[in-house]
């Protein structure tokens, strides 16, 4: 404890003897904080995505377009099987895979629920987390838009009937 006290005394004496050190100690960190705050950006663009659309319906294509229109994802491949997409994921050709199963639209309309599968390459943990978050938010937005449209259609049917 006594050693730390002597080191602090020595440093304070040195700072007050040499007045040129004051701007370096106080002004430089503020300037760095102001300049570098705009340089740090955790947004990732051009995430390579494979989309396996086994349904090929209007709703699955709409989801595909919504994913690609977001600006976060760049279509790497559109294979016909999940196995091919998984191989792209293993070879690090794709960062994320969206698998749309057969009968996606039918299940969505009939059962009011449908499942999707997201496979994420988690070698780069932060990129994987962001890609998963982006995809989940886009799917959530797709679901919300779909529900809003159906609600509007139901209201029109009630007003006509």
Structure description:
It is a single chain. This protein is an alpha/beta fold and 161 residues long. It has 2 domains: 2-39; 47-160, 3-Layer(aba) Sandwich (abc type-2 transporter like fold). The protein is 61% helix and 13% strand. A 4-stranded mixed β-sheet has the order 2-1-3-4, with helices on both faces. β1 (47-53), α3 and β2 form a beta-alpha-beta unit.
Q: State the share of residues found in helices, binned by percent.
A: 55-70%
Count of alpha and pi helical runs:
6
- Please identify, by name, the CATH architecture of the largest domain: 3-Layer(aba) Sandwich
Spans where pLDDT lies below 50 across 5 or more residues: none
By CATH's scheme, which homologous superfamily of the largest domain applies? abc type-2 transporter like domain
Mean pLDDT: 90
The first-level CATH class of the largest domain is given as Alpha Beta
What gap, in angstroms, lies between the N and C termini? 85 Å
Following the backbone from N to C, one meets helices and strands in this order, namely HHEHEHEHEH
Largest sheet: 4 strands, mixed
Instruction: Supply the number of structural domains.
Output: 2
Which topology of the largest domain does CATH recognise? abc type-2 transporter like fold
Question: How much strand content do the residues show?
Answer: 5-15%
| Rough outline | elongated
Q: What is the C-alpha radius of gyration, as a whole number of Å?
A: 27 Å
Number of strands: 4
Strand order of the largest sheet: 2-1-3-4
Look at the helices and sheets and give the structural class. alpha/beta
């Amino acid at each position: 404890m006594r050693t730390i006290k002597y080191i602090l005394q020595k440093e304070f004496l040195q700072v007050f003897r040499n007045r040129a050190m004051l701007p370096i100690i106080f002004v430089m960190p503020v300037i760095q904080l102001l300049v570098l705050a705009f340089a740090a950006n955790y947004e990732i663009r051009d995430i390579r995505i494979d989309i396996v659309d086994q349904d090929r319906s209007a709703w699955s294509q709409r989801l595909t377009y919504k994913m690609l229109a977001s600006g976060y994802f760049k279509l790497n491949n559109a294979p016909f099987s999940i196995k091919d997409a998984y191989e792209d994921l293993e070879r690090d050709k794709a960062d994320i895979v969206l698998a749309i199963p057969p009968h996606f639209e039918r299940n969505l309309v009939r059962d009011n629920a449908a499942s999707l599968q997201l496979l994420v390459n988690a070698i780069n943990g932060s990129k994987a987390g962001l890609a998963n978050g982006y995809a989940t938010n886009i799917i959530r937005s797709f679901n919300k838009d779909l529900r809003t449209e159906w609600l509007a259609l139901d209201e029109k049917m009630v007003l006509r009937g």
